[in-house]
Amino acid sequence: NLAQNTASGGYTDLGDNSISPAFDCDENGREDAADIEDFGLDDCNQNLIPDSCDLADGTLEDCDDDGVADSCQLGFPADPRYERHDRGSERAAGVTSSGTLAWMERFTGRTDLDRISVIQITFGEVGLSPAIIGRSIVVCIWSDPDGDGTPNDALPLEIVATTIEGPLGTTVQTIELEADVTVGVDANFFVGVVMNIPANTEWYPAAMDDDGASLDSWIAWDAGSFSPAGVGSADFLKRLPEVDTSFASSRWMITALPALEASVDDCNANGLIDTCETADGTSADCDGNEVPDECDIANGAPDANLDGIPDGCQGQLVFEVPARFPTITAAIDAATDGSRIQLAPGNYAEAIDLGLKNLELIGDRSDPASTTIETPGLNRTVVTIGGGQDASTLIAGVLIENGISSTPEPGFPANSVGGGLYIDGSSPTIEDCIISANQATRGGGAYLRFSEAVFRRTVIEGNATGGGGGGLWWQDGVISLEDCTIRNNQAQGDGGGLHVATDGGSIAGGAITGNLTTNDGAGLWWQGSNLHLALIDVEISMNTAGGTGGGVFSLDGSIGILPSALVACDNFPNQIRGPYTIMPAVTNTVCRCGDISGDGEVNGVDLGLYLAVGGSPCQEFEDCPADITFDGIVNGADLGKLLGDWGFCH
Hints:
about 30% strand; mainly beta; rod-shaped; Type 1 dockerin domain; 9 helices; 50 strands; ten-stranded parallel sheet
């Protein structure tokens, strides 16, 4: 009552002495297994098909075209498990007679495969299969005590009770053994199933793979009952080819692969030969050493910025926040000198200090307000640069705000300085930034000391101090502002917008507007020690001082300002107070009233002051209030302006 389903075909009855094409891949009239055995053909994956055929039909890959399958060069796992091997056409054998049925496959233990930890089984589906899913079975491993390759004396090494899982024909049941079963090297053993069959006319199937050379597949049946230990005493015990010749070429249930030491490298264990995956670009190999970058890094190549590329392959390293580093401080700590820290748009509530490193800290130059660094509630300067950094250090495209400084001023520790930015003994570059809503005793927005920093296209606005330099305080060094805007800052001391006492420098382009101070120099307070301060194409307007120098206050006795294309208007109580020099052929626009005395009214007092110096050139870098037209000489033009403004200044 043994039946078979041959729906998928792919085999022939051996009674006609023909060889199935499925088992003669090179069509030489010999079964593949015989070719392998007799001619020594390579079969590194132990599938009883010559490697040359597997390579030809694409079953095995050969990425480096050396004639050896990649999988074989890569080796098999050192501790592989026996697993079901399925290469195509399926058949199922079953019985309809009641009693006890067992089916099993013979194996021979191999080196590194003498222990079994997993068994996998499949029940095939044939016509009229009963609803056997969920019924009890026993999965067994048997030994072959006399070593003759038959289960006549088979003894159970392991018995596992379980139930049948479905759907039939596709489900691979995996049984994890509680402990490994040792079968021994070069020793025969059998793996299979024992089940009881009730009286019915339906088939109880076992799945086979019939497109490989014959392995020892056995079936046992008895009308009565036998245990796993009694397989050898069953009434019916035969190899399948002895039952039906069409089963002669059957691959039953599972096969085993021996361990194979790798002959090529696969450092990342992705199943690809390293030289192949670096050659075809599957894995990056920046240094061309035929080792994937990820493996170089795993083996100790530095990757400080965690981008998966060895640092040695890159010029400037980029540290991405927060993509690879959660905070700016974490990125600074990891960064090497000369690196760039790239900030994604967002809010970063932390006080940062560049330490001794020259770094670039970059946000969004086109929209600096989208990338905010602030210290609300921390009473900390937002950004500190005090490690001797040079111009290669760059802060760009960020909004620095809400800093309330607790940084003590060197030499004057009672003063807190630099609410937003503190620079000491360093000369970084600040570009395309906004410094806003910060507070300190001096330098509410920024405090610089002994610095030759350069500010470009930066807005310093809405900052405040209890002392001087509401927007910026710059002490010693050389000031350089290019196309910057200093606006709406406040100071309780001198310099509502800027308080500058340096060895010269320049402010070129931009505007100083809307700043307030209770003392002198609402827009700019200046004291030059050795060189003048060049004001080039700057608009200074609408600044208000409680003292004098609403636009600019240049301290008497110091090297004054050198204006060029300056526009100074609508400042209160006056535009410019203090020493300056006008360069020849330079046009400045300074909206001075004829009030030489500064008492708010143009009258005889002012006329007397004019007559005292009329016809004289202004001395270089001296205060010259009678030069009403701001052209460097007191002459008739100034007299005309004085008489035209007679009365109260507006």
